[in-house]
Amino acid sequence: MEMNSLQDLMVDQLKDLYNAEGQLIKALPRMAKAASNPQLQQAFTTHLEQTKGHVERLEQVFESLGQSAKGKTCKAMKGLIEEGKEMMGEDAEPEVMDAGLIAAAQRIEHYEMAGYGCVRTYAQMLGNKEAAKLLQQTLDEEGKTDKLLTDLAEKVINLEAQ
Ligand code: FE
Ligand code: FE
Questions:
Q1: Among 8, 61, 84, 142, which is most buried by a count of CB atoms within 10 Å?
Q2: Nearest ligand atom owner, CA of 143
Q3: Rounded to the nearest whole angstrom, what is the distance from the C-alpha of residue 64 to the centroid of ligand 2?
Q4: 160: CA distance to ligand 2 center in Å?
Q5: How far apart, in whole angstroms, are the C-alpha atoms of residue 8 and residue 11?
Q6: Does residue 74 carry a pLDDT above 90?
Q7: Is residue 1 assigned to a domain?
């Protein structure tokens, strides 16, 4: 594809995120199923609903750029989900499995946060306030999810795993 401007780069990065979010919608129900702690199950289920909203926001951002929403295989998300699957395939104690699922999920959240931070900044620089606002909203939700997982790990799950 054409890669001559910051806007071209932004579209390219949005396609990566759009595909990544789509992959995550398929993976999160499996992660919720693999979790034993009810709060962790709930965290994954809540984030699944949020993730559907992230897809919708990306569609609005594509629209604001006059582009149709299209994805491009995100190899990194594929790999991160693959690592999560590896974890789920382990014969682990439930508490240890939960701690491992959190580790996998936080890698995913941090990857998404990096991606959204970049495209949010491009949107600001390009003067696309609507896109910047939408992308910031998603970035905030990814950040809150990450924080929630940290709290759950530090206050409950890592202790049980120990
Ligand atoms: Fe997301
Ligand atoms: Fe996420």
A1: 61
A2: 2
A3: 22
A4: 25
A5: 5
A6: yes
A7: no
What confidence score (pLDDT) does residue 2 get? 83
**Residue 136, pLDDT above cutoff 90:** yes
What does the pLDDT read at residue 1? Answer: 74
> Mean pLDDT in the chain?
97
| Residue 52 CB coordination number (10 Å) | 13
Cα of 138 from ligand 1 centre, angstroms? 7
Residue 108: which domain range? 6-161
Q: What is the CATH number of the domain that holds 55?
A: 1.20.1260.10
Number of domains in the chain: 1
- pLDDT by residue (tens digit) across 2-53? 899 999 999 999 999 999 999 999 999 999 999 999 999 999 999 999 999 9
